[in-house]
């Protein structure tokens, strides 16, 4: 029969709502896969289908004699059982008959190795009622082992809609584990084919300079980032600190700043080791990083994040290139991708394009006139500031535009090496940048305070189509909630494995600390934010709903909120906390190794 386009449209409409990743794959079927599916007439006159095997032979999916009658025979196998595992969709004969029995069933799990065959079935059978049920699940890409007979139960039946194949026991366990989520989309041998993970940190990038977070395109263009992450995950990111060594230590370790104590530089008369960090705990605290069992590569342009301070620990290859820009790292990443081939990798790139001193490409210029004309309403450009300040903004925004172009380059490199479809791509900033919001001019323009322009950061994640549904499920409960950067690696690990997080990824209260200059801590809950200066014993309280720019300290006027937030803050941080200064150690002792193991267990990784 000729495919009915209206059936395909009806099925696709439901598929796009419930299984958007599968809908995308169905619409964009690979030509090689499509060519392997062949349709011919059965002896009864209906259509039947076969697959062209690797050796050039034929493997029939539907009966060559009478596929409609064969489907009716398979339907009788269900009997009174409520749960059905259907191996293969064929051309939809069985699904069409199964839809008439839909009210008698509970859970339906549909597997199909060939996306092209699913596309053909959607053209020939009305599956809307089956697809629209919450208890219907679809698995694509699974190739079950041959000649394995599954064990049915009183409540569960397996129907083989293609000859001689059925899943092994391990596969059932995988299905049960992943089906706990509201929806799951694709299961293409995840245990055997781990994803790549690419993290790109753009140092000192303000969140309000990214188009997807509301920045006007003419004020600060980020076309490459916006286009790539338009269908990705956009999080309301908050950094655990405003100084890079502290932030990255929290991301790698999963610890709060006052737990790992990487908070302040310590001067030394030794020129070779001019800076020492109080990071005896941090050196051994690569808990989150150690959970990614793949080749780990660290490409770094920040002078602080050097291996001798512990930041290369846990990586197989660490290349510090202080002062490098995005273009140079893209060349280096291209060389790695070419060498790695099919070897799964975890690559972290720390760029400095938006960190002072700002450097931009000529084609990425944002003019003073653009700044003055297209500045966001609400006053990023305050009239009290001089033209020098406006020129300063144009230099910073040009650096952001440059970083965006470099990001577009590395995405093209991934595509050239055919890695994009099996790589989780993350783009984020470790902290923002102060741009004289309160009339102050400092260098560097972060680390000194805990205002939102330095704490609010972009975090954008795009998983490949096979895992995009899993990623959406993981962040669904976090819609409208703040996300602490220290939870970034556990989130990525859950996206990769499909497992539920051992601990909540989104917190009702967010805490941060900086010790770069003085010692400041903060807590934010709903619309209220408290900043505590732990050395000078002063407090600032802001109502962010009415005072987004944090210019009006209401601490003395709002004792209730101030008291509640202060109690919460000091329930987390000891009131007498001081920054410890330990001698730098490069190797953890036995006690620290036990601590690592316990931390991994607490996170649910071992």
Can you characterise this structure?
The chain has 21 helices and 21 strands. Strand 2 (47-52) and strand 3 (58-60) form a beta hairpin. The protein is α/β, with parallel strands linked by helices and 606 residues long. It has an 8-stranded mixed β-sheet, with helices on both faces. A 4-stranded parallel β-sheet has the order 6-5-4-7, with helices on one face. Strands 18-19-20-21 form a 4-stranded antiparallel β-sheet, with helices on one face. The longest helix has 30 residues, at 387-416.
Note the main attributes of this structure:
single chain; alpha/beta; four-stranded parallel beta sheet; 18% strand; 606 residues; elongated
**Total count of helical runs of at least 4 residues:** 21
What structural class do you assign from the helix and strand content? alpha/beta
Low-confidence stretches: 143-149, 163-174, 176-192, 267-280, 381-385, 583-588
Overall helicity: 25-40%
Q: Major sheet, described briefly?
A: 8 strands, mixed
Q: Which strand order does the major sheet show? A: 13-12-14-8-15-16-9-17
Cα radius of gyration in angstroms: 28 Å
Shape, principal axes of CA atoms: elongated
Provide mean pLDDT, rounded: 80
Number of strands: 21
Terminal Cα span = 54 Å
Proportion of beta-strand residues: 15-25%
Compact overview of the structure:
The chain is α/β, with parallel strands linked by helices and 606 residues long.
In terms of topology, how is this protein built?
Blueprint: H1 5-18, H2 20-27, H3 31-36, E1 37-41, E2 47-52, E3 58-60, H4 67-75, E4 83-87, H5 93-99, E5 108-112, H6 115-124, H7 128-131, E6 136-140, E7 156-160, H8 169-178, E8 196-202, H9 223-229, E9 233-238, H10 244-253, H11 257-260, E10 266-267, E11 275-276, H12 280-283, H13 287-290, E12 295-300, E13 317-320, H14 326-340, E14 345-351, H15 368-374, H16 387-416, E15 423-428, H17 452-455, E16 456-462, H18 465-476, E17 482-484, H19 488-497, E18 509-514, E19 520-525, E20 528-533, E21 538-543, H20 559-572, H21 590-602
Parallel strand pairs: 4-5, 4-7, 5-6, 8-14, 8-15, 9-17, 12-13, 12-14
Antiparallel strand pairs: 1-2, 2-3, 9-16, 10-11, 15-16, 18-19, 19-20, 20-21
Helix pairs in contact: 1-2, 1-6, 2-6, 2-18, 4-5, 9-16, 14-16, 15-16, 18-19
């Amino acid at each position: 029969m000729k495919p009915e386009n209206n059936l395909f449209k009806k099925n696709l409409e439901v598929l796009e709502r419930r299984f958007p990743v599968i809908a995308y794959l169905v619409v964009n079927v690979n030509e090689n896969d499509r060519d392997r599916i062949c349709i011919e007439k059965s002896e009864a006159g209906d259509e039947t289908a076969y697959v062209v095997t690797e050796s050039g032979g034929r493997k029939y999916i539907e009966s060559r004699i009478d596929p409609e009658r064969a489907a009716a025979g398979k339907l009788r196998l269900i009997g009174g059982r409520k749960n059905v595992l259907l191996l293969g969709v064929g051309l939809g004969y069985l699904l069409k008959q199964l839809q008439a029995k839909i009210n008698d069933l509970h859970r339906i799990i549909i597997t199909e190795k060939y996306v092209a065959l699913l596309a053909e079935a959607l053209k020939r059978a009305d599956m809307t009622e089956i697809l629209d049920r919450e208890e219907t699940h679809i698995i694509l890409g699974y190739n079950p082992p041959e000649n394995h007979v599954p064990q049915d139960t009183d409540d569960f039946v397996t129907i083989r809609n293609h000859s001689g194949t059925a899943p092994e026991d391990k596969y059932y366990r995988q299905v049960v584990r992943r089906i706990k989520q509201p929806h799951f989309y694709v299961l293409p041998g995840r245990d055997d084919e781990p994803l790549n993970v690419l993290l790109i940190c753009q140092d000192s990038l303000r969140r309000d300079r990214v188009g997807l977070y509301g920045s006007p395109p003419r004020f600060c263009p980020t076309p490459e980032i916006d286009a790539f992450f338009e269908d990705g995950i956009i999080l309301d990111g908050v950094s655990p600190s405003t100084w890079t060594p502290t932030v990255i230590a929290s991301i790698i370790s999963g610890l709060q700043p006052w737990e790992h104590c990487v908070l302040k530089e310590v001067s030394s008369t030794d020129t070779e080791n001019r800076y020492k960090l109080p990071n005896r705990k941090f050196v051994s605290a690569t808990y989150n990083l150690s959970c990614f069992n793949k080749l780990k590569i660290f490409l770094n342009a920040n002078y602080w994040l050097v291996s001798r301070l512990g930041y290369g620990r846990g990586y197989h290859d660490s290349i510090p290139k202080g002062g490098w820009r995005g273009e140079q790292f893209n060349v280096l990443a291209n060389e790695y991708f070419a060498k790695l081939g099919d070897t799964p990798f975890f690559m972290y790139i720390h760029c400095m394009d938006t960190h002072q001193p700002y450097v931009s490409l000529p084609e990425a210029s944002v003019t003073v006139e653009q700044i003055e004309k297209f500045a966001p309403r609400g006053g990023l450009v305050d009239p009290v500031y001089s033209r020098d300040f406006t020129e300063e903004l144009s230099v910073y925004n040009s650096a952001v535009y440059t970083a965006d172009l470099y990001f577009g380059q590395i995405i093209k490199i991934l595509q050239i090496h055919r890695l994009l479809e099996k790589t989780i791509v993350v783009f984020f900033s470790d902290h923002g940048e102060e741009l004289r919001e309160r009339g102050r001019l400092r260098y560097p323009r972060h680390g000194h305070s805990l205002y939102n322009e330095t704490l609010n950061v972009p975090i954008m994640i795009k998983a490949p189509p096979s895992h995009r549904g899993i990623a959406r499920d993981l962040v669904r409960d976090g819609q409208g909630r703040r996300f602490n950067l220290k939870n970034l690696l556990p989130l990525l690990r859950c996206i990769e494995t499909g497992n539920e997080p051992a601990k909540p990824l989104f917190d009702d209260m967010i805490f941060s600390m900086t010790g770069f200059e003085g010692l400041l801590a903060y807590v934010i809950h709903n619309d209220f934010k408290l900043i505590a200066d732990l050395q000078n014993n002063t407090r600032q309280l802001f109502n962010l709903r009415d005072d987004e720019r944090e210019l009006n300290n209401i601490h003395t006027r709002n004792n209730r909120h101030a008291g509640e937030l202060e109690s919460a803050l000091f329930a987390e941080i000891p009131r007498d906390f001081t920054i410890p200064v330990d001698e730098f150690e490069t190797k953890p002792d036995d006690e620290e190794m036990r601590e690592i193991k316990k931390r991994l267990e607490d996170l649910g990784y071992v």
